[in-house]
Design goal:
- The structure is a single chain.
- With 177 residues, this protein is an all-alpha fold.
- It has two domains: 92 residues, Rna Polymerase Sigma Factor, Chain: A (Orthogonal Bundle); 68 residues, Orthogonal Bundle (Arc Repressor Mutant, subunit A).
- The chain has nine helices and no strands.
- α4 packs parallel to α8 and α6 crosses α9.
- The longest helix is centred in the N-terminal third of the chain and has 30 residues.
- The N and C termini lie far apart (47 Å).
- This is Sigma-70 family RNA polymerase.
- Pfam families: Sigma70_r4_2.
- It comes from Actinoplanes friuliensis DSM 7358.
């Protein structure tokens, strides 16, 4: 990231080659539109190129180094926000009057996958968790993020992530006992 911040295109290309397959896969889990995923990837890496200096400044103050996990968390934060922005833009272009639009409730792909693979009892327990607790579990358990990466991804302090994870585990234990 330091080299990218200094304008090193080789370092940027190396970052792109190493992270774009992973990032594209994560985005596809949340959006099935390949065009939107490609647009989001492009926007993400353009942002990385432009803002690498701010990441280096932040991570240097925070830890004295720029660990790979922090970089992955930062990339995912940018990509997920860019995807939300793209979906909002797309929604505005296709505005349908509210009285014509059907009301459909579709669970997230991860929730479907969890409910299908872990059984009804666990699926129900997960569905009953508050959204912020589910988000922490999804990031830490399904995505394999550390507390620090989850903190960056969700935009909350590390202590909050730890508290939510502990609370979610407690509620899951109670629901399954």
């Amino acid at each position: 990231m330091r080299r990218i911040a200094k304008g090193d295109t080789d370092a940027f290309e190396q970052l792109y080659r190493r992270t774009s397959p992973w990032l594209a896969m994560r985005l596809r889990l949340r959006c099935s539109d390949d065009g939107l995923v490609a647009e989001t990837l492009q926007d993400t890496y353009l942002t990385v190129w432009r803002a690498a200096g701010s990441f280096v400044d932040f991570s240097s103050r925070a830890s004295g180094d720029t660990p790979g996990g922090a970089t992955a968390g930062w990339l995912w934060t940018i990509a997920s926000r860019r995807l939300v922005d793209a979906l909002r833009r797309q929604g505005r272009r296709r505005e349908t009057p509210a009285e014509v639009m059907p009301t459909i409730s579709v669970p997230a792909a991860e929730d479907d996958a969890l409910a299908g693979t872990v059984g009804d009892e666990l699926g129900v327990a997960l569905a009953e968790l508050a959204p912020e607790l589910r988000a922490v579990l999804r990031a830490m358990v399904l995505d394999g993020f550390t507390v620090r990466e989850t903190s960056v991804l969700l935009g909350v302090p590390e202590g909050t992530v730890k508290s939510r994870a502990r609370r979610a585990r407690t509620l899951m234990r109670e629901a399954l006992s």
